[in-house]
């Protein structure tokens, strides 16, 4: 049994040629699930060798631009390439976002249908909006739970679990992360917001005000590591990085708190979900 996560976008809303905004592809055995869909996610899938039309499930942690701006392209390109079914999951507002995109793309969809493409995969997209944290009811061969995070719009972390192997995505969150600690308890892999890395020479004139606000919406590497330690996870992956972040410093900051394996990925890195063999 093999599970992996392709880090399609490890960046933030800040423009960065090295790191695109948030998107990850979870592959639980042969089931690909896109978690967030920042700008460029579809082309990152292609670069990673995953045909976008094979992805039939998208989970949005929340609807900030850096987590959904790539969805319009995914929606159309995947269908044009042959996707014939799609389910999307996200907080309340996901249906409105999807419907607005469909409306915006109406002429394009009509034109492509006039060339013979079917309605399936574009007009019959199933949208599941989460109203309460807990079990997420989606037709997939795994258990999925979510928990509410601390951010400035409704945001959910997701736990995907199959035959005792579990992967958790935090989405964006500020501490305290008690709900995330519960959700991620004993997980094999925790992918955690770590936007608040130290950055040098930031040129933004209002950087200090933005930075002050960010403290209420995101975590530092040490705070992410604290969640990983309290949740007793095997591996911690830090992500959602600002430009000019220092990966070495982020690693030092996290490793002071968490003894398990810590990964600071680049875009398109593939992380294997390590499964501990049972201790007899
Ligand atoms: Zn956000
Ligand atoms: Zn974000």
UniProtKB/TrEMBL annotation:
InterPro entries: AtsA-like_MBL-fold, Metallo-B-lactamas, RibonucZ/Hydroxyglut_hydro. Residues 33-241 form the Metallo-beta-lactamase domain. The keyword Hydrolase applies. Pfam families: Lactamase_B_2. The keyword Translocase does not apply. SUPFAM superfamilies: Metallo-hydrolase/oxidoreductase. Keywords: Endonuclease, Hydrolase, Nuclease, Zinc. This is MBL fold metallo-hydrolase. It comes from Sporosarcina soli. The lineage of its organism: Bacteria, Bacillati, Bacillota, Bacilli, Bacillales.
